[in-house]
Write a structure and sequence with these properties.
There is one protein chain. The chain has 74 residues and is α+β, with helices and mostly antiparallel strands. It contains two helices and two strands, in the order ββαα. The chain has helices at 29-45, 55-73; strands at residues 3-9, 17-23.
Length: 74
């Protein structure tokens, strides 16, 4: 299995960096379901609005789709 690494900054603390290991193995249906559950949980925790423009929802969806796009591009 081949891995790539990506370094990202913490959006809340510019002094912190994260190293993310990215696999070239395609995502499974279970991976997508788990990602959806994590997104739903974080939306509830951060009290994102269900309708209208919501900066919290925008940020979380951006993170979620960034992970999905990364999985498809590898």
């Amino acid at each position: 299995m081949k891995f790539l690494y990506r370094i990202t900054k913490d959006p809340n603390n510019s002094d912190l960096l994260y190293c993310q290991r990215i696999s070239s193995t395609p995502a499974t249906r279970l991976d997508v379901i788990n990602l959806q559950e994590q997104l739903d949980m974080r939306l509830q925790q951060r009290q994102a609005r269900e309708t209208g423009i919501c900066p919290v929802r925008r940020e979380l969806f951006s993170q979620c789709f960034g992970k999905t796009i990364t999985k498809f591009n590898i």
